[in-house]
Design a protein that fits this description.
This is Peroxide stress protein YaaA. InterPro entries: YaaA (IPR005583). With 249 residues, the chain is α/β, with parallel strands linked by helices. The chain has one domain. Helices cover 38% and strands 17% of the residues. It is built from ten helices and ten strands. The strands form two sheets. Strands 1, 3, 4, 6, 7, 8, 9 and 10 form an eight-stranded mixed beta sheet that branches. It is globular and about 55 Å long.
């Protein structure tokens, strides 16, 4: 089972790992695009106004541009420790036992605008680049990533893939046959609404269960049974890989 997570714009600073080494990351077939994008954000960091525009940051966030300038020399952290925010707070990998963390590093991967795909324990620096960023002189990220990342994810789809990425990241390279999850809140009168901000928290808790369970569901039927045993209210239309996670309003 592979669980795909979205990255976060916010990231823990610093780290105690050696500087970035692409050889330490899996899927070397992604390295040519990784190199292009690393070079792109490094070069762009020399032009602060252009960086603000391309990265969608304000003057108050110029430290993000400085991170990009130092992306090859800065210390690294494992990917699951680097990303922060609502989803990662709910996932809370730092509270996992050693055995659980080994399992989480194997089962969880992050769809990154800069690295394409990084597994949970792989060392990465802090950086700023989102799926909707457009670096001057380079094609759109979707055009860069889809031809190379698509086959990597398609190969992963030989097993069960649970795709929790947000829309812009899923669009970089969809996964054929992956299970997707939408979150709806249910009011006392039975009416439902899309969950926006706390959607990430619910997906983080779901990812934590999938990262730590002893079960190895082979298909969507087994996955639904696992989630229901874990206390999640999950619905599935017959024959569909799209799940609905229903939470109280």
């Amino acid at each position: 089972m592979l669980v795909l997570l979205p990255p976060s714009e916010t990231k823990h600073p610093g780290g105690d790992g050696a500087p970035l080494d692409l050889a330490a990351l899996s899927h070397p077939e992604l390295d040519p695009v990784r190199e292009q994008l690393l070079g792109g954000i490094e070069a762009l960091a020399g032009d602060v106004p252009a960086s603000r525009k391309a990265l969608g940051v304000s003057a108050a966030q110029d430290a993000e541009i400085a991170r990009n300038a130092a992306v090859r020399t800065a210390p690294t952290l494992p990917a699951l420790d680097r990303y922060t925010g609502v989803l990662y707070d709910a996932l809370d990998v730092r509270s996992l036992t050693r055995a659980q963390r080994v399992k989480a590093d194997r089962r969880l991967a992050v769809g990154s605008a800069l690295f394409g795909l990084v597994h949970g324990g792989e060392p990465i620096p802090a950086y700023r680049l989102s799926a909707i960023s457009h670096l001057p002189g380079l094609p759109r990220l979707r055009a860069l990533w889809r031809p190379v990342l698509g086959p990597v994810l398609a190969a992963a789809a030989d097993g069960l893939v649970v795709d929790l990425r947000s829309g812009s990241y899923a669009d970089l390279a969809p996964v054929p046959g992956a299970v997707t999850v939408d979150v709806l809140s249910e009011r006392a009168d039975g009416s439902r609404a899309v969950v926006s901000h706390f959607n990430k928290a619910h997906k983080g808790r779901l990812a934590r269960l999938l990262a730590t369970t002893r079960a190895e569901p082979a298909d969507v039927v087994g996955l639904v049974a696992l989630l229901r045993r874990g206390g999640f209210h999950v619905e599935r239309a017959r024959g569909s890989a799209a799940l609905t996670l229903v939470v109280p309003a």
